[in-house]
Each structure stands twice: as structure tokens, then as C-alpha cells.
Amino acid sequence: MPRPKPPRKPLSHTRPPRFGPPPATGSPTLSSKHARRLIRAHHALHKARARALAAATTTVADADADAAAAVADLDARIARAGGLPRYQLASRQGQARERGGDASRVLVGWVAGVEEERRRGRRGGKSRSLLEVGALSVANACGRVRGLAVTRIDLNALEGGIERQDFMARPLPAPGPAGDADRFDVVSLSLVLNYVPDPVGRGDMLRRTCLFLRRCAGESDGRGGDGGTEADAEGDGERRLFPSLFLVLPAPCVTNSRYLTEEHLEKIMGSLGFRLARRKLSSKLVYYLWVYDGSSKSGKEARFGKSELRKGSNRNNFCIVLK
Ligand SMILES: C[S@@+](CC[C@H](N)C(=O)[O-])C[C@H]1O[C@@H](n2cnc3c(N)ncnc32)[C@H](O)[C@@H]1O
């Protein structure tokens, strides 16, 4: 008579981790969890480096050596962890999968109606241009919109078609119409602002986007719009969508920060001359389209420091400072 099978043991929840070499750079086996850990560690090291760097430039001479050594040590740790290339691959593989894909699809969804109308010739005129800062791939959704010319830059170019360039060092367009060819209808900062390790650097980056946006035609051709107003993507009127900044952040940067709320972000952006045209909140990310009209309500840029806006021990410290 056959013996009854012994009951199967439940899987242990305390199983030791599997050791072995980390997945090779570019490996499709990089798990979401691994990618998330790698991304967090990279951000943390960068923030520590920014703090050490600030200390190195502000401390008295004999402390300089220590601070400089701390920076060098952090550089070595960043390099040992695979540096920017590994972070980028983790972002491209793990994070993209986890958050449901390419963030530029949201931008395309917002502006596609306008472009479609243009294509059908009702508005006529030039094609649109996009400067994608922090581009990881040329194969994202914005690259497939007809009539949208995309310029891609990144600190480290992973593919052909992406220029290796620091946005903060990108040569500024010449003043006036002479610089128009070097300005864009849309600048995209998708998960780039949160890469900047310090609050002042974030403010500087936001401010710099204005310099690369085409001026409202109200200023250059006196017609009170960018070559006329655009019907927006949802057809809810004649609100302009260009020139604009597409900004994507991890949602907790605004939903759970001690120093930044959406209201505060709107004030910062308003002071730079932007108004909020579109917003989408997902479980992981927040997407914004900010239309630039080149002037703040008060007529001048305000200063925004670091002040606590929400209390609570479980908050993060994401902050934007406009000096
Ligand atoms: C998390 S990745 C985001 C990639 C992509 N935009 C997305 O939405 O998935 C951030 C990228 O921004 C790039 N980056 C950060 N600061 C930059 C700067 N000042 N100029 C150009 N690229 C920058 C980094 O090199 C990195 O590749």
C-alpha cells in the first residue's frame, strides 16, 4: 500500500538572503526592490556629499582638509556603488516598471490634442520643441509625437541621441529674438529636480528653466499669446499650454514634506512666472504642467527660504529654496 505523502513544510519567512554577485549593470533581472534600494542609496550619498561640500567651502582653513576628505570619501562610495550609470539603469529598469512606465506619456496626453489640431492645420505654424533634461532613453512617448522636436540632455548620456550636458551649464540663449532657436516650447524636468541634492540648487534649477522657454508672444509679437491661444488638450477652453515646464516629482516630495506643500510650490512657481495648468497625482508620482507667462503676480520674484509647513515625525525634508 502506498505511503501517504508527508505534509509540505510552509516556506520559512526567515530564509537567509541569497548571496552572490549583484545583477550586472543593464541586466533585465534587476528587481524593483533592488532598483529602489540602489536609487535611495544614490540619493542619500549625493545629499551627504552636498552637505560635505558645503562644509568644505564654509569651514575655517584647518577644518577644510577634513571636509575635503569627507567629500572624497563620499565620491569613492558613490563610485563603488556604480555611480550615475548604475543609478540611471536602476531608474530606467526598476522604477519605470514600478511606476507604470514612462512619465512622458502624461505630458503627451496633455499636449497631444493641441498638436493634433496643429497637425490638421487649423492653427498652422511651426512645430513644437521640447528640451528633455535628464533623458534616459530616446524611445519614450514624447519622442513619438508628430510635430514635436525633442532635444535630450543628461549628465551622463546612456544612448546616442542624448547629449551629455549639465543643464545648469547649458549655454544660455542670446537675448531677444536672436536666441529664439535655442529656446523651447516645453522644458521637461521629470524626476530631475529631486535628483538635485540641495534646496538652493533646486530653486536655481527651476529659475533656470525660464531662460530656455520661448517668450510669450505677448512680449515678442504683441498678439497676446504664443502665436494665438491654444485650445487645451481637454478642450476646456482657450487656455494656453505653451510655453511650459513639465515637472514630475516623487509624490511624497509635496504630499508629505515638512518644507513643501502644493500650495507653497504654487507660490514658488507663481513668483517665477508660472501658473499651474495641469496636475496629476498617482500613488508614486506627481506630474505638473506649469505654463510660463514670464511675470509673477507681484511683478518681482520673491524669496522662499526653508520653513516648516507641516509638523510630524514621519515627514521627509524635501525643500526648494529661492534665494
Ligand atoms: C531619475 S533620472 C530621471 C529620468 C527620466 N527623466 C524619468 O522621468 O524617468 C534623473 C536623471 O536626471 C539627470 N540629471 C540630474 N541633474 C541634471 C542636470 N543638471 N543636467 C542634466 N541632467 C541631469 C541625471 O543624470 C539622471 O539621469
TrEMBL record:
Amino-acid positions noted as binding S-adenosyl-L-methionine in the UniProt annotation, renumbered to this chain: G134, D154
Keyword Endoplasmic reticulum: no
Annotated keywords: Methyltransferase, Nucleus, S-adenosyl-L-methionine, Transferase
TM ranges: none
Basic residues composition bias: residue spans: 1-16
Superkingdom, natural source: Eukaryota
GO MF annotation, one: rRNA (adenine) methyltransferase activity
InterPro entries named in the record: Bmt2/SAMTOR
Ranges for region Disordered: 1-32
EC numbers for this chain: 2.1.1.-
Subcellular location per the Swiss-Prot or TrEMBL entry: Nucleus, Nucleolus
Recorded GO CC terms: nucleolus
Pfam families given in the database record: Bmt2 (PF11968)
Primary localization: nucleus
Task performed by this protein: S-adenosyl-L-methionine-dependent methyltransferase that specifically methylates the N(1) position of an adenine present in helix 65 in 25S rRNA.
Family label: Belongs to the BMT2 family.
Protein's name according to its UniProt entry: 25S rRNA adenine-N(1) methyltransferase
